Amino acid sequence: MEKKQNPCSPIPTRTRHPAVRAWIYLMRIAYRTERESAAHAYAHGLTFAQLDVIFHIAKCPGITQQELAERMLVTPGNVTQLLQRMERQGLIKRVPEGRAKRLYLTEKGQEYCEQLLPKQEQLHIQQFAGLTLEEQEQLLHLLMKLDRAQRRKVRALREAGERLPWQDAASQAANA
């Protein structure tokens, strides 16, 4: 007997390719995870983006604004506005170095990091509790492999002097 498909399933019945189905599930899981992380940040008076900035700077003190924007997959303009607010709040300091600005956590920013990072890590551990440790390792290996492939593609486009697809979309939206 053929199993009847739920018409309200998050995966459309005509979408059968594993890559499309995997993307849909990744997006759903990422969205849920981000919402939970955002609630965690908000409970401590931060936005999710601010929490993300704190963790990036803690991991890589002295990162430039440009590098941070690339890692967060946002425009340099967006990251500048975010950093200005965080600097006013006393969470970070921007140190000019030539044309670049290097980013560091203040004492207050470091305290937030030390307080929130362990809680954030526990949150993620709990979110993956539906998988065994071995399955988590397998998933990590596959996602890292996919990430490397995507970064190689981006590097190749840049080396060829081509615009990245999302740059075209962002510039079209800005000109609309």
Any overview of this molecule?
The chain is mainly alpha-helical. 66% of the residues lie in helices and 8% in strands. The protein contains 7 helices and 3 strands. A 3-stranded antiparallel beta sheet has the order 1-3-2. β2 and β3 form a beta hairpin. α1 crosses α5, α2 packs across α5 and α3 crosses α4. The longest helix has 27 residues. It is globular, with a radius of gyration of 20 Å. The model has no long low-confidence stretch (mean pLDDT 87).
- CA-CA gap between termini: 52 Å
Q: Determine the mean pLDDT.
A: 87
Give, in order, the helices and strands: HHEHHEEHHH
Structural class: mainly alpha
Percent of sequence in beta strands: 5-15%
Largest sheet: 3 strands, antiparallel
The helix content is: 55-70%
User: Which strand order spans the largest sheet, edge to edge or round the barrel?
Assistant: 1-3-2
Uncertain regions: pLDDT < 50 for 5+ in a row? none
Q: Calculate Rg over CA atoms.
A: 20 Å
Number of strands: 3
